[in-house]
Amino acid sequence: MLGLGQAKATQIQFAFNLVNSVTPFIGALVADSRLGRYRTILYAFPVYLFGLALLCGLSYNVEVAQRAGLGTLLVCLTLIAIGSGAIRISMNAFIGDQYVAGSSETSQDRRGRTVKADEALTLQYIYSAYYWYDISLPSPPHSCRERKSLIMY
């Protein structure tokens, strides 16, 4: 679409992966020293979504993508990397803050039996679900990665 060639498209993709891996450190500094976890997630999420929406909007039509050019693509990827880095570093600690240790919850199941939630198993389930989500979604299948390179190619 942009006519960059496969080598340049691959370089841009690897640069994006590098920046996306480094931005959690910056997000951690911001969250710990300035904003806190909640506000960091609150401010980073719109940045992330705006970058994704802009990238999707630009890649919808070949003519629009060619007119927007490389600079706009780099802006989109930078916004996505900044947003996702700040979200990823703050989210796991924020999840842990939501669960109050020592609070046991009792409820009744469908058969009317009283059930007490196990704190350790609940935390294990929450973090297991989060890490499976965090690991599996950011890395698209191989065909999607090829498509992303083809957009730049």
Explained architecture:
With 153 residues, this protein is mainly alpha-helical. The protein has two domains: 1-90, no CATH class; 99-148, no CATH class. The protein is 78% helix and 4% strand. The protein has a two-stranded antiparallel ribbon with strand order 1-2. A hairpin with a 5-residue loop joins strand 1 (106-108) and strand 2 (114-116). Helix 1 (6-35) runs parallel beside helix 3 (62-98). The protein is elongated and about 65 Å long.
SSE arrangement:
Layout: H1 6-35, H2 37-59, H3 62-98, E1 106-108, E2 114-116, H4 119-136, H5 142-152
Helix pairs in contact: 1-2, 1-3, 1-5, 2-3, 3-4
The gist of it:
By secondary structure, this protein is mainly alpha-helical. It is 78% helix and 4% strand. Helix 1 (6-35) packs antiparallel against helix 2.
Helix content percent band: over 70%
Domain count, please report it: 2
**Structure class:** mainly alpha
Profile the largest sheet: 2 strands, antiparallel
- Helices and strands, in N-to-C order? HHHEEHH
What's the β-strand tally?
2
How many helices in DSSP terms? 5
- Mass-distribution shape: elongated
The strands making up the biggest β-sheet line up spatially as: 1-2
Tell me the strand percentage band. under 5%
List low-confidence stretches.
140-147, 149-153
Query: What is the overall pLDDT average?
Result: 77
Q: If you compute it from the alpha carbons, what radius of gyration comes out, rounded to the nearest whole angstrom?
A: 20 Å
CA distance, first residue to last residue: 6 Å
